[in-house]
Amino acid sequence: MKLAVFDFDSTLMDGETIDFLAAPLGLEEKVAAITERAMAGELDFFESLTTRVALLKGLSKAKVDEICQDLPMMQGAEETIKGLQARGYKVVCFSGGFRNATSPATKKMGIDADFSNILHDENGILTGRVGGDMMFGFSKGDMIVRLQNLLGISKEDTLVVGDGANDLSMFEHASTRVAFCAKPILREAATHCIDVKDLREILKIVK
């Protein structure tokens, strides 16, 4: 068995979930600017996440779910997932974003598991608070080590794919590290860089 871990936003999905959620509130540009700085490694991930989620206060959970059901998947995503599974990989999604988005995508594309964060709501309205598995810059690295230990999979049999600074911590624990249309900070840590928006390029890298 091997392990393939994908970031969600701007990797499996073509865009940033939180930017899509901010649009109905007229805050897309404000949120996107914070997202951009966080992914470039200029801001602490926890601080940037909690700051952006606070701006979503007042949005209905129904609207969140509606938006998340219709997010654009990256070209070649489903084909790549199935191709990796055919090669003996367990395919997992890690996201500093939200389960509202990762869970429907996981089900739709046949991903083996997803780990992400939860938007807190009261009576169906977002409170501006967030919690979950992927709150910190180190979270993805912490989780990938736990999965490797649980499944008995080595660093050598681990593939990771991401685009931003919060993917660095999981890059430390994989021998095959793919920077997908990525920020410079992540490209420097990668073994492979893909600069076209087509995940099927990954199938050319793996055996």
In short:
By secondary structure, the chain is α/β, with parallel strands linked by helices. It has helices spanning 17-22, 28-39, 45-54, 61-68, 77-86, 99-109, 139-151, 168-171, 184-187; strands at residues 2-7, 89-98, 113-122, 125-132, 158-162, 176-180, 192-194. It is built from nine helices and seven strands.
Topology diagram in text:
Elements (H helix, E strand, L loop, with lengths): L1 E6 L9 H6 L5 H12 L5 H10 L6 H8 L8 H10 L2 E10 H11 L3 E10 L2 E8 L6 H13 L6 E5 L5 H4 L4 E5 L3 H4 L4 E3 L13
Description:
This protein has 207 residues and is α/β, with parallel strands linked by helices. It has one domain (2-204): HAD superfamily/HAD-like (Rossmann fold). The protein is 38% helix and 23% strand. It is built from 9 helices and 7 strands, in the order βαααααβαββαβαβαβ. It has helices at residues 17-22, 28-39, 45-54, 61-68, 77-86, 99-109, 139-151, 168-171, 184-187, and strands spanning 2-7, 89-98, 113-122, 125-132, 158-162, 176-180, 192-194. It has a 7-stranded mixed β-sheet with strand order 4-3-2-1-5-6-7, with helices on both faces. Strand 5 (158-162), helix 8 and strand 6 (176-180) form a beta-alpha-beta unit. Helix 2 (28-39) runs antiparallel to helix 3 (45-54) and helix 4 runs parallel beside helix 6 (99-109). It is globular. The mean pLDDT is 96.
